[in-house]
Amino acid sequence: MGNVWDRAVEVLRGRSSILGSIAVGAIFVPSLVGNAVSTFLTPTPGANVAASTGLLGLVLGLAVLLVSIWGQLAMLAVASDPAATRADAGRQATQRLLPAVGIVLLLGVVFTLAFMPLVFILMRAGVNFTSPNAMQTVSASTAGSASLYILVLMVLGLVVGARLLLLNAVIVNERRGIGAIMRSVRLTRGMTLRIIGLMLLFALVLLVPMIAVQSVVGLVARLVLGGDAPGLVAFVASAAGAVVTTIFSVVAAAFTAQLYVAAVADKDGASIGI
């Protein structure tokens, strides 16, 4: 892992301009759009909102998701191969976008199904999901079973997340469809605990500055804009958080790409971009 970090730092030093330009256009700007949609176009409960407004929000949300996936693929392409130009990475990301979206949808279905037993547990206990106080009527035994199941899902989620860390790198560098899932699992064999530790550390390092930046910027925005524009204040604060997220996305792409290169060299005896 130390060698991977060293290589990732070299990538950031040598390819920061290309990675930064991709991140701004495909990560930061879509984040701003997504934040604007959630702040200004998402209807509040009980509010009368035109159907066209809701449809516009849905379309923009899907567009943001697609552009973000494309951006992640493009950054991985640049960080994996020192010979790849911005145009090369863009073409590669465009070619692999549909397989990536398909796998995201598949994993989304699996993730949803994983929560179905929890729904059944609560339904058997007579929980009314339409009631705002539904969880207050849950018995102690049901709450215990539900909590245990959630804990198991969290542990499994960490393990699965670690084994699929290289999924996008596989998708963009190898012409695989669903097979990219098992390929990522094979490449991360023997590294699960170390990857989980890095994921938790990275999440902590990301959350602390993001919360701090959002809090400070939100406070300043509230002082400047006043208390009559809570939506605009929230948007400005979220925009500041998006800056931090964008920076960390570049770092994550460089590390993930170099971990993929190292894993391929270790498991297959091949080299990519090195």
Task: Annotate the secondary structure layout.
Elements: H1 2-41, H2 51-80, H3 86-95, H4 97-124, H5 140-163, H6 167-173, H7 179-187, H8 192-225, H9 230-268
Strand composition percent: under 5%
Number of strands: 0
The averaged pLDDT comes out at 87
Note the overall shape. Answer: globular
Secondary structure tally, helices: 9
For the biggest sheet, the summary is: none
Helix content: over 70%
Reading the helices and strands in chain order gives: HHHHHHHHH
Distance between the first and last residues' Cα: 16 Å
Number of domains: 1
Give the oligomeric state of the chains in this entry, treating copies of one chain as homo and distinct chains as hetero: single chain
Low-confidence residue ranges: none
Radius of gyration, taken over Cα atoms and rounded to an integer in Å:
21 Å
Query: Strand pairing plus helix content: what structural class?
Result: mainly alpha
Keywords, please?
globular; 0% strand; 274 residues; mainly alpha
Give structural notes:
The two termini are 16 Å apart. The mean pLDDT is 87. This protein has 274 residues and is mostly helical. The chain has one domain (2-268). It contains 9 helices and no strands.
